[in-house]
């Protein structure tokens, strides 16, 4: 059975508060790379089961998480909760500015 690739979700916040939101970000990044889950797992050096668990909001080891994030070109940033909104606003502003420049 041929599986369809997920579509990237541009509406996702980069601020992760749950395993579900982390999984959604990972799945969206994989979709940006147009990678099926089995191909991504092979490239990342992890099992398909591990990648599936992560994308579905289930826990994985921290070293596996870091391996997946790095392999997909993502970086984890840990900030105090009080600063998260400021960081999210700055990222949204940056994204809006890059979109404006791209359409000019």
UniProtKB/TrEMBL annotation:
PROSITE patterns referenced in this protein's UniProt entry, alphabetically: HTH_CROC1 (PS50943)
Residue ranges constituting the HTH cro/C1-type domain according to the UniProt record: 26-79
Gene Ontology molecular function: any one: DNA binding
Taxonomic superkingdom: Bacteria
Protein name: Helix-turn-helix domain-containing protein
Organismal lineage: Bacteria, Pseudomonadati, Pseudomonadota, Betaproteobacteria, Burkholderiales
